[in-house]
Specification:
Elements lengths: L7 H8 L5 H9 L2 H15 L15 H26 L7 H9 L11 H14 L2 H12 L5 E4 L15 E5 L4 E5 L7 E2 L10 E10 L2 E11 L12 E5 L12 E5 L2 E4 L9 E2 L5 E2 L9 H31 L18 H36 L6 H29 L11 H11 L6 H20 L28 H28 L4 H7 L1 H28 L4 H21 L1 H7 L4 H18 L3 H7 L4 H4 L10 H9 L12 H11 L3
Helix pairs in contact: 2-19, 6-7, 6-8, 8-9, 8-10, 8-11, 8-19, 9-10, 9-15, 9-16, 9-18, 10-11, 10-12, 10-15, 12-15, 13-14, 13-15, 13-16, 13-17, 15-16, 16-18
Amino acid sequence: MPSEVVNKDLQHERSKCTFNLEEFTVWWVGGKQKLADKRLIEIFFKNQPEFHDKVPLAYASHKEKYEETIRKATVIFSKTRKFLQEQGKYDARNYFETWDFLLGTGLIKEGNPFRLQYDMFIPALVGHANPEQQSKWLDRALKWQILGTYAQTELGHGTFLRGLETTATFDERTDEFVLHSPTLTAYKWWPGALGHTANYAVVMAQLYSKGKCYGVQPFMVQLRDEESHMPLPGIDIGEIGDKIGYKGVNNGYLGFDNYRIPRTNMLMKNAQLLRDGTYVKPASSVLAYGTMVFVRVIIVKGMAYDLSKAATIAVRYSCVRRQSCINPNQPEVQVMDHLTQQNKLLPQVSKAIALKLASDYLWQLYQETASEMDSGKLHRLPELHAISCCLKAVSTADAAQGMEVCRLACGGHGYLSSANFMTFYSVATAASTYEGENTVMLLQTARFLVKSWNQALKGQKLPSTVQYLSEYCGKTFRRLPWSDSLPVIISAFQAIVANKLKLANEHIERRKKAGYTPEESTNMTALELTKVAELHGRGFILLSAYELIEKACQTASVQFAVVLRQLCALVVYGEALQFAGDLLRFTTVSEGDIVKLQHKYEAMLAALRPNAIGVVDAFDYPDYALGSALGAYDGNVYERLFEEAMKSPLNQEPVNKTFEMYLKPLMRSML
C-alpha cells in the first residue's frame, strides 16, 4: 500500500465493505497462484526507476515519444525477462499475458511497441507455418532475435480481405514469389511496429500461380537488414504519422517493388504451393483468418480490463470529490452519493466484470477449437469466428462508451491527461476499427446466424452458442412468458434474437423472390441483421456472466456471493431496460413490469453503493497501472493533480520567452 496518508473519505468507504477483498481478487485474477505471480512482478515493476517517467511523455515531440517508448520498452522487457527467469517463471510462449495486461496501459501509456510481436506475429507463425518453417523462424521470434509485425490492412482495403491488392506472383523459373504493390492503395497501411521497429512481417497477399489467383495467403517477409536495420532493396517502408492514441506504436506503411522471396516463405501449414506451381487448398478457407480470430478473442479480455481500470479511477475520485448538497441543511456530499453518479459508474463496474467472464468463456472455446483443429477437426471454427466477431464489436463499443461515461463523471478534471482516461479511451476506440470494423464484424456474425437458422429449419443440430434458435424454428410467433428472474431475462434476449432473426430471414427471402440477388437482399436487410448479431452477443455476455458467477457462488463465502449476485443482477437489469422496446414486442412483459424492473435496478445501485470502493479495490490495480492522479489508492487527488501540473515544462520558468517576443510588443503597440 502507498505510504502516504489515505484520504479520510476513502478510509471511511473501505470501512463499509461487507466482503473479503482478497477473496474477490483471487476470483478476479483466476486463482491464488496467478495472484501471487501478479503481485510478485508488480513489486518488481514498482521498484525499477527506469520503468517510470519523471516527465510525462505528453510533453515530448512525436519523434521523442517514439524513441523514448522504444528505450523504455526494451529496458522493461530485458529486465523483466531476466527477473522472471531468476524466479523460474518465464514462459516465452505465454509471456504476452504478463506484458500486455500489466504494461499495456500502465508503464507504457503511449502503447506497447512490441505488442504485434506476441499478439499477431508469433500467433501467425504458430497458426500458419508448417513444422519446418516454425523451426526456422518461430524460435527466433520467441527469443526476440527478430522483431515482427502482421501486415494485412492496406491503404485502400481493411476488413474486406478479398479486396486486398498486394500480389505474390509465383515465378516457376526461380522458385520465388514476386511481391508487388500495383497501386498506391495496395500499400500496407496501419500495422503496428511496421514503421521503424520490425524487421520481419507476415504479409497477406493475393497468390498468383500459372496466371490464376488463389486468394489471400500469408507470407514470411524480411523487411530490413538484420545488422544495419536498413530497408532491403524493393521495400518502401515508413511511418503513417501521428494518431489519436498509440503514440509510441509506430504504425507504418509498406510497399513492394517486385520484391522477391523464396517459395518456401509462403506459410504452408494450411495451404501449399508445390514446386511446379500447383496450389493445394486448405481444409477450410476460414483457416486463413485464424490469427485475426485469436486477436479478437484477446481484445474482449483487454476491453474488460481497461474498462475496469477506468471505472476504478472514476469510482475512487467520486468518493473523494464533494459537490452539491442533497440536504440543504447538510454539507456537500460525496459525488458518489448522488443516484445519477451511481447510475453512471456502477454499471461500468458490473459491465467490466461481465465482459471479463464472457472473455473467459470465449478463451475456453478458442482453446478447445484450436486443439480440435490440430487434430484436423474444423467443425467448430465457424462458430468461434462468429461469436468472436460479435463479442469484439460489442465489447469495444461498450468499453469506449463506458470509458467516456467515466471521464464525464469526473467533471473537468477528467479531461486532464494526468487523469489518464485518454489512454484507455484511445485503445478502445482504436479497437473498434482494427481487426475488423465493428459493423462488418456484426454482419459476419449475422451471416452465421442466418445460416444456423436455415439449418435449424431443416432439423439439423446447431452449435452450442446458437442452440437456442432451434426452440423457435417452425413455430408460430409466441411471446416468451415474462418474469424478472435473471434466467428468464437472459432467455428473453434469446427470444428476441430468434424472433428478429426469423423476421430478417423472411425479409431476405421476400427480396430474393422480388428479383434481387442474395447479396443485394442481404444488404437491404443489413440494419436488421446487425441488430440481431449485437443482441446475440449481448445475450452471450449475460449468460456467461450468470453461469460463471453462479458457479463461483457455490464455493464463495456468503458475503462475497451476495455482492457477486448483485453485480450480475445490475448488468442484467441494465441491459434489459436498454432493450425494453424489444421486450414489449417479444415477451409478455407489461408496462408495469418495466416500472418494477426499473425499481429493482435502482435497488441494486443502492445495495452496491457501500461496496463500490471495495469492488474496485479488489480489482487490485497498482497505482502505476492506472497512471491516474484521480484514481490513486490514497485518494489524495488534489495534491497529485498539482504535482502533475508542476511537471509541465512551461512551469519550469516564471516567464516564457513569448512574453518578450510577442506579448509585450502586442500590448505596447499602437493598435
